[in-house]
């Protein structure tokens, strides 16, 4: 099982989460790069992605629609700002319409591999308030739980259906 790390709070307007996965970097990178993988793990636990489009290149747009038994369809979207293969992804993120706070933030995800394990460093900023930042901690950690489960399965050669 991958080691879990609690979210670190830096400034009031930023969030930083580090997670380690029992999977090589090539697998974790593909999970972010390829929509057919991303659709299987994106979104907090209990949510199912119903729509996903991703033009994985600098300047390319992405958009995700997801739903759960407790919430109506939620939409988030953004643009890939920078991509350094197998090292770093920088993207904008905002909730669409009434799905949540619509002020865009910037997400930077950095990757490193050691001994066949991948460490992922996630940074999101700026938030408009501490409450907004704190409301994202649980959602991202829940999403990373699904990412961890999917990465471990792929590393073992198991193809999983979409995780909820």
From TrEMBL:
CDD domains referenced in this protein's UniProt entry, alphabetically: SRPBCC_CalC_Aha1-like (cd07814)
* Start and end residues of each Activator of Hsp90 ATPase homologue 1/2-like C-terminal domain: 22-146
Gene3D superfamilies assigned to the protein according to its UniProt record, in alphabetical order: 3.30.530.20
Q: Which residues form a coiled coil?
A: none
What is the similarity comment for this entry? Belongs to the AHA1 family.
Q: What is this protein called?
A: Activator of Hsp90 ATPase homologue 1/2-like C-terminal domain-containing protein
């Amino acid at each position: 099982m991958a080691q879990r790390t609690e979210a670190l709070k830096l400034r009031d307007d930023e969030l930083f989460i580090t997670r380690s996965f029992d999977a090589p970097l090539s697998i974790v990178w593909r999970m972010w790069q390829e929509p057919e993988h991303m659709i299987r793990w994106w979104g907090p636990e209990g949510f199912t992605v119903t729509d996903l489009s991703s033009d994985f290149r600098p300047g390319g747009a992405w958009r995700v629609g997801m739903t759960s038994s407790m919430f109506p369809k939620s939409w988030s979207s953004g643009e890939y700002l920078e991509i350094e293969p197998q090292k770093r992804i920088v993207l904008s993120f905002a909730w669409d319409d009434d799905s949540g706070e619509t002020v865009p933030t910037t997400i930077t995800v950095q990757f490193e591999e050691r001994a066949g394990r991948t460490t992922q460093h996630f940074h999101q900023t700026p938030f408009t308030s501490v409450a907004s930042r704190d409301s994202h901690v649980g959602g991202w950690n829940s999403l990373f739980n699904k990412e961890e489960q999917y990465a471990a399965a792929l590393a073992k050669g198991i193809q999983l259906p979409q995780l909820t």
